[in-house]
Amino acid sequence: MGVTSPEETRDVEGWAKQFPEVADEIASIQEGMEAYAQLHAITPDESVKQKIFAKLSAASATAPVISIKEKRIDAGNAYATSAAWKYAAAASILLLIGTLYFTYTYYKKYDAAQQELASAQTELKQQKDMAQGMHEDMDKMSDMHAMPVSLKGMDDVPNAAARIYWMQNTHEVYIDPSNLPPAPAGMQYQFWGIVDGKPVSGGMISTTKDGNKIRLLKMRSFGKAEAFAVSLEKAGPEMPAPSKVYVMGKI
After folding, report:
1. Is 65 helix (H, G, I), strand (E, B) or coil?
2. What's the first-to-final CA gap in the chain, in angstroms?
3. From CA 184, how far away is CA 65, in angstroms rounded?
4. Angstrom distance (rounded) from CA 106 to CA 110
5. Which of 9, 108, 229, 239 maximizes the CB count within 10 A of its CB?
6. Minimal CA–CA distance to 76: which of 68, 65, 67, 84?
7. The pTM is what?
């Protein structure tokens, strides 16, 4: 009816598309307003009817005859009808705004609850995955075939350390890098096995995952090794030989 601003009109149309109950309420209001208009319809002046017939006759010689029921009202009744129409329109708009407000408020609360539930479920899954990972790590470290090897820091990094678990039956190698200091920007640790007196790469080492320290990481197997070492290298592809050894230990 032109009572709302363009922005308010767009909001109402958007809510009607999003919420079926809002669309139903708008349809109900429109039907009520149409019934009200039909109930209080005003017959046009005789001159208006004559002008309409004249235009219809000019447009088509076979124009159908239209019967219009006349209803005479005085100026007072016309003013009362117009005022009542405005009051009904205002009441309908207020009802619609109230319905939209409560619907929107309920939706926001529902959406917030859904987001909190999703966040809690994600956190619970992360905790379960972490617990499962720790359980698997404990199984490997307590395996009867696991031989622990301590890697101690070199003279210039005495506080650095790592521990190796070498599976004597399968020759699998696991490293606990949690006691290595954080690698500087652009650098990464590389694992080495000393085989026949020569260093053989066992792969790059990741010390964290998803912001958490890695407790046990499977590395490349050597089959046979005399000692193990960890070096600090530039991030990227594996180096063919260690540049700066941080920790080292013999079997």
Report:
1. coil
2. 88
3. 93
4. 6
5. 229
6. 84
7. 0.48
